[in-house]
Design goal:
elongated, 5-stranded antiparallel β-sheet, 13 helices, 627 residues, alpha+beta
Length: 627
């Protein structure tokens, strides 16, 4: 290990310096002894020199082991933070691409661009959209020449745009995504925009642009991921798009990372790890990467998990050191006998110093062993906490979108029109629901029910048409007239999900404060939740993870022995989920020993924070311990 790289691992450097100091002292007394030695004492110092060489070898092994473990801990944690930062952002932006593509087909927008609606009507509709999908700060409608026909942000006073995104959208059959300065967003310096052409009878009649609340989203990610580190998002030219610490790394700053042996360094002083997006469901997005930079000088944290085991390799080093100390003990005894028998009294202070040196060396080696065992434990506990927190955050973000979807689709004018009739046109609504469901594959079925709770339309399984649905969430939906409210079934087996357990989201279909019925969307819980748990599980560890409710009822699990609706009794470990706290504890479960990490749901934006929905869910990871 080079001296330069050793400076990044202060504890290893401290041990190296301490033992090296003892080595120098040992060399000094050996040299002094040799000068004065005669007769039997000469062999004594030859033995001492041999011991000195062995100590240097043991010290080098020890320092290499310390540095490797500390390096793996730091790089592992930074790599996890960096990868999660880019992955959670890309997942969010994937949802935005679906939004702009679907909204561009909205019938009311098409009618407005054809002159069939007033601007105030369409502004009200777009404002209703943003009240549901609160991730946008503006929605802009333009004609094909770039003239703004409507937008909803009063601070963004635009009349016409010459941004090339307009031509790009006209030529593309998909969305166009940009992050830069644009005359479409006068209210901010740069923005993340999504554009899509609006088509009527194969003719392009306009362009839709969604302006994403990029900084808001970054703030939520930084709060979850950064901790005492810096998280950066960098463009393909290494320019800083976003920074969790703008004082140390300002926006638009050009970041240069340097290689030093097997480390990547920021400003030649701090260890850094960069990650590229793995993509999500085929979406890769803009060519960004995330970088996590360690600000800690020691990278040592106390852990509540205290029963760490010293690694076998280090045990071997300790045993070699003990054997050497025993050999030195024999040298000291022989020296004392020689000093007494041959009256070579100059040996006494040398032998006392040798005894002190050997004791100090063994003490530092044992201290290193304890530290190294703790480093391994800290790495596991910290990474488990990060990954488990990530999984519950992904769940909240996913279900936030579900709450938005059901409320927006409930505002579909055709649904309102049909439910206002005594005999609604089921086929017309079936077609609309089918088109929606084809775009939003996280649902197995979408359905419409009337004011009596009778299902009158469905996207996929149409055998349910005519059935009545009487669960409490439907009753709440039919009693509600506020388009901002949504309701969710309990997590339970449903005949609308092949008698498997899921959540069904509901929203009221309302016309002039009169509730006509509602929309129900059947979430594919088994597939989606398991995918989240698998995607957020730590690599190269043995274990499993679950989502559960406050009573220990399992929502999803990667353990085939634990099925949805099974229960775990957390009280056996003196854990009370009612406290809604993050917890880490070593537990015995199913004849194995695990590090259990529990993270509660905190919600996302207004979802489960300021809306009408309460549901306490926890992510729990069980990582098998081999110590």
């Amino acid at each position: 290990m080079s001296a330069q790289n050793l400076t990044f691992f202060p504890f290893a450097k401290y041990i190296d310096d301490t033992i090296e100091e003892q080595n120098r002292l040992l060399q000094k007394i050996s040299l002094t002894g040799k000068i004065n030695a005669f007769g039997p004492s000469e062999n004594l110092f030859e033995t001492m020199n041999s011991a000195l060489a062995k100590f240097i070898s043991i010290k080098d092994e020890l320092i290499d082991a310390l540095v490797l473990e500390q390096k793996n801990k730091i790089l592992g944690e930074l790599g996890l933070r960096s990868q999660l930062a880019i992955d959670v952002l890309k997942r969010n932006l994937f949802e935005r691409t679906a939004d702009v593509g679907f909204l561009a087909t909205d019938g009311e927008i098409i009618k407005f661009l054809k002159g069939q609606h007033q601007v105030e009507y369409i502004k009200d509709r777009l404002e209703a959209y943003v009240k549901k999908y609160s991730v946008y700060d503006d929605v802009i409608l333009l004609d094909t020449n770039g003239y703004v026909k409507a937008n909803i942000n009063p601070k963004n006073r635009i009349k016409k745009s010459t941004d090339k995104i307009i031509e790009q959208a006209k030529k593309s059959d998909e969305f166009v995504e940009i992050y830069r300065k644009s005359d479409l967003i006068l209210h901010k310096q740069k923005g993340l925009l999504y554009a899509h052409k609006i088509v009527d009878n194969e003719n392009i009649i306009g362009i839709l642009v969604l302006s994403f609340k990029f900084q808001d989203e970054l703030d939520t990610i930084f709060k979850r991921v950064a901790d005492n580190n810096i998280i950066l998002y960098l463009s393909d030219k290494s320019g800083v798009i976003a920074s969790s610490n703008r004082l140390l790394v300002p926006l638009d700053h050009s970041v240069r990372l340097y290689k030093s042996n097997d480390l990547t360094l920021f400003q030649n002083r701090k260890i850094a790890v960069s990650s590229n997006s793995k993509g999500y469901q085929g979406y890769m997005g803009l060519e960004w990467q995330s970088t996590a930079i360690s600000l800690s000088d020691d990278n040592h944290e106390d852990s509540d998990i205290n029963d760490a085991k010293i690694p076998p390799k280090l045990n071997k080093i300790i045993n070699n050191a003990k054997e050497l100390v025993e050999d030195l003990g024999d040298v000291i005894i022989n020296g004392e006998l020689i000093a007494s028998k041959h009256r070579q009294y100059y040996l006494s202070p040398i032998l006392d110093t040798l005894r002190q040196i050997s004791t100090t060396m063994l003490q530092k080696i044992n201290e290193s062993a304890t530290k190294l065992a703790a480093v391994n434990t800290q790495a596991l506990t910290k990474n488990a906490q990060i990954a488990t927190s990530f999984s519950i955050d992904l769940m909240d973000r996913n279900l936030y979108e579900r709450a938005n979807d059901c409320r927006w689709w409930a505002l579909t004018p055709r649904f309102i029109e049909e439910l206002s009739k005594s005999e609604p046109d089921s086929e017309a609504m079936n077609l609309i629901l089918k088109n929606i469901n084809d775009l939003y594959t996280v649902y197995t079925n979408l359905f419409i029910f009337d004011r009596d709770g009778k299902i009158v339309s469905a996207s996929n399984d149409r055998t349910i048409i005519g059935e009545h649905i009487n669960i409490s969430a439907v009753k709440q939906t039919l009693q509600n007239s506020n388009p901002q409210n949504y309701f969710v079934s309990n997590f339970e087996k449903s005949p609308f999900y092949d008698n498997r357990a899921t959540y069904i989201y509901f929203a009221s279909i309302v016309n002039k404060n009169t509730t006509l019925g509602g929309v129900g969307i059947v979430f594919d819980a088994e597939v989606e939740f398991k995918a989240i748990l698998e995607d957020s599980m730590l690599q190269n560890v043995i274990g499993f993870s679950i989502f559960c409710d406050i009573n220990g009822k399992i929502i999803s699990s990667t353990n085939p022995k634990l099925k949805p609706l099974d229960s775990i009794d957390f009280s056996r470990w003196k854990i009370h989920l009612e406290a809604k706290e993050a917890i880490q504890k070593v537990v015995e479960f199913q004849d194995r020993r695990y590090l259990l990490t529990i993270e509660p749901s905190y919600g996302y934006r207004e979802y489960k924070i300021s809306d009408n929905y309460k549901n306490d869910i926890f992510a729990c990871s069980f990582l098998e311990l081999n110590f």
